[in-house]
Amino acid sequence: MRVNVTVNGEQRQADDVWEGESLLFVLRERLGLPGSKNACEQGECGSCTVYLDDVPVCACLVAAGQAQDREVRTVEGLAEGDRLDPVQEAFVEAGAVQCGFCTPGLVVQAHDLLDRVPNPSDPEIREALAGNLCRCTGYEKVLDAVRLAASRR
Amino acid sequence: MTLTPTELTSAVPGGIGTSPQRPDGNLKVRGEFAYASDLWHEDMIWGATLRSPHPYARITSVDITEALKVPGVHAVLTHSDVPGRNLYGLEHKDQPVLAVDVVRYQGEPVALVGADHPETALRAMKKIVVTYDVLEPVVDMETAVDDTPLHPGGNLVRHVPIRRGSQDVTAEVVVSGRYEVGMQDQAFLGPESGLAVPATDGSIDLYIATQWLHVDRDQVAAALGLPLEQVRLTLSGVGGAFGGREDLSMQVHACLLALHTGKPVKMVYNREESFYGHVHRHPAVLYYEHGADRTGKLVYVRSKMYLDGGAYASSTPAVVANAATLGVGPYEVDNVTVDAYGVYTNNPPCGAMRGFGAVQAGFAYESQMDKLAEALGMSPVDVRIRNAMSEGSTMPTGQVVDSAAPVAQLLKLVQDKPLPAGTSTDIRELPGGVSNTTHGEGVVRGVGYAVGIKNICFSEGYDDYSTARVRVSMVNGELAAAVHTAACEVGQGLVTIMQQIVRTELGIERVTVLPMDTTIGNGGSTSASRQTYVTGGAVKAACALVKARLDGRADIGDEVIDETTEWRHRATEAIDPETGQGNAHVQYGFAAHRAVVDVDVDLGLVRVVALDCAQDVGKALNPQAVVGQIQGGSAQGLGLAVMEEIQTSGGKVRNPSFTDYLIPTVLDMPPMSIDVLELADPHAPYGIRGVGEPPTISSTPAIVAAIRAATGLALTRVPVRPEHLTGT
């Protein structure tokens, strides 16, 4: 099948998509956007988090066909040219990035949190990021990063 | 190829002792860092692996006829398509690339499919007909040695005895126990993946996520029957490792398919396959007896421990040696009897995971120290300090600890930290959280302590070295440096450390880290907390050669100064096979934890309220990264304490998913206050002491001690599950 979807503001088209493919697979393997990650592909880890019409979702749980004529924003669409989004900048500065495989999902999820709640409390940050697994950091520096980003936005 | 590993350049101040940003940080937050599973090549096909559903079975036939007929399938391969040696392994070559006539664990690779779409490959795999004669699996590590032999030499992989001092001394106070450690998974987030690209001359390039490029290359080349120079490996982005990438997974398989089809082949495991596709931490059963005098001074420690290596040896021999040589913990004990056994079973293969043998022993000996404290009426911290080793102490191996061993100081540091406020009334901070299972009723608090010891770098006489190349030339009128190694960056931040070392040694700010590959000499393994020590040492040594040629010049015109050197840490010795005596280890690392927990005793739910750590790192080359390692290592210890276990039944894995194998989320992790000591080791570059593993050892027993303190239960097994607390 053919899928037409707006990704990071650009109209994109994918051909020969098998009906069982996920939005994640289409982004990664057909549209050249592998930033959203494939850590579990079963909706448990949050590494594939993208905005679908402004709502964060696990792209691995969205069938590619469900994205037809909708708007997707991925981690690749957060920076403006060379200028990182404050959330991205804070993750690097705070040391919240080690292996970085969880980072794209955490960055999108934190970006959404700060859009909704500009100055979140620690319990609010924890609740918002509870669906994003990280195996390297123990989350302390992820919390530091979100606090830092909140202070700058 | 649209995505390949790239050079990483930063031109910022930031020598050793500072925390400059990591050079791959921007790429990672932008989603532009090329991990192994992101690689893509025009005309590539997808590889998939058919695995055994049985823990132990004889293969009576394999029929690939129907699978080959599936449209879009390019190849279906079995063991007969392996042109070289069909056996590989880190220490013993005992593991088939593809099973021949027997499978020894559930998930063992039997056949490969190459197809134009991953779904096509899966459908073709279902058409491969394998007939099995199912056999009774060997699953009990304590009786495995006397059970059906799974390998020609029997089921004992290695026995390490330690004999020190009197073997029959008695003591006034004796405590004993039997402890169990469940099978933990590394659960790195980036699944096993890689891209194999065949060249027209019959050679191959493999872009791969691994911990040791050269040992992968040697094993791949042997299996392919190719000379080493025809197998080129380049490190792709690695999504975590923690020991789980020391062994081969899909490396040979992707290359076989690529050479067979003449096409680039991408292989990416999904999470379920990842659970079958790499080794795990050895589960263990450990018997201990501690004897002490009335003052709490240890008189003897006796232990017998079993580590389940599963179907293939992997790094079991070294894991057993660690468990044995570090088996009494960071304590002075004159009389020691240890027997550690690593065995084959039909359980999933086990090998390296952060802490490597020291974790299993650590849970047991620290549980014993708490038991001893209770028997003596002493505090858990006092009994530990009473026996704490220090610089100059003698290990059970006879090795004298010849650099800082601040065990007592670390314990005091965590003891003196302020305690968190009392049990919260906010349900988000209570056991069960927003499940709203309690408002504080049935919740009790406990505090626990633990300290651990880990060897740093490779041991037992292994020639452990790394190779580094540093090149300096003029860029835009200024000196610029490039550093090239084959040492694997897996997330820990080696790329940052190498830049910092070059800046400190050469005073050059602009430093490029070249992609890590096998065109340069061996970098050694990213394991045993060794890369900053050994590859750091190699980069420092290469810088010294460059510096001599620079001779103080700030402008070298068109000259290019390019130096490559090998660097090794001081030699170690094999241990005596009868007594375990010998200077086996290069360096020892120590960390201590204090854990505070709230336990809902009605439901058996645990919330770790605080997990504070003190660790000596010799010299913090990058303080931010050091703290990140300690927090991350502590989190993995928390996972083993209260949630993480690959559960098996009859050799079959019952929970191969992140739905059923739980790792800590941000809701499970408490705030962690970290104290970093910098007591330089005069034998190590810059005085550093390996950081990554020690916090994983003491975190687990500290948390369990806190749960015991809260509940009064004995708790001899990790992970502690709700039913252990409620007795239901």
Automatic annotation (TrEMBL), chain A:
A Pfam family that the UniProt record links to this protein: Fer2_2
Source domain of life: Bacteria
Keyword entries, A-Z: 2Fe-2S, Iron, Iron-sulfur, Metal-binding, Oxidoreductase
Native source species: Lentzea jiangxiensis
Gene3D superfamilies, alphabetized: 3.10.20.30, [2Fe-2S]-binding domain
PANTHER family noted in UniProt: OXIDOREDUCTASE WITH IRON-SULFUR SUBUNIT, XANTHINE DEHYDROGENASE IRON-SULFUR-BINDING SUBUNIT XDHC-RELATED
The keyword Metal-binding is assigned to this record: yes
Name used for this protein in its record: Carbon-monoxide dehydrogenase small subunit
One MF annotation (Gene Ontology) recorded for this entry: metal ion binding
InterPro entries assigned: 2Fe-2S-bd (IPR002888), 2Fe-2S-bd_dom_sf (IPR036884), 2Fe-2S_ferredoxin-like_sf (IPR036010), 2Fe-2S_ferredoxin-type (IPR001041), 2Fe2S_fd_BS (IPR006058), Beta-grasp_dom_sf (IPR012675), Diverse_Oxidoreductases (IPR051452)
UniProtKB/TrEMBL annotation, chain B:
Pfam assignment, any one: MoCoBD_2
GO molecular function, a single term: oxidoreductase activity
Record-linked InterPro entries: Ald_Oxase/Xan_DH_a/b (IPR000674), Ald_Oxase/Xan_DH_a/b_sf (IPR036856), Ald_Oxase/xanthine_DH-like (IPR016208), AldOxase/xan_DH_MoCoBD1 (IPR008274), AldOxase/xan_DH_MoCoBD2 (IPR046867), AldOxase/xan_DH_Mopterin-bd_sf (IPR037165)
Residues annotated as domain Aldehyde oxidase/xanthine dehydrogenase a/b hammerhead: 30-136
Region of interest called Disordered, as start-end residue ranges on this chain: 1-24
Protein name (Swiss-Prot/TrEMBL): CO or xanthine dehydrogenase, Mo-binding subunit
Species, as recorded: Lentzea jiangxiensis
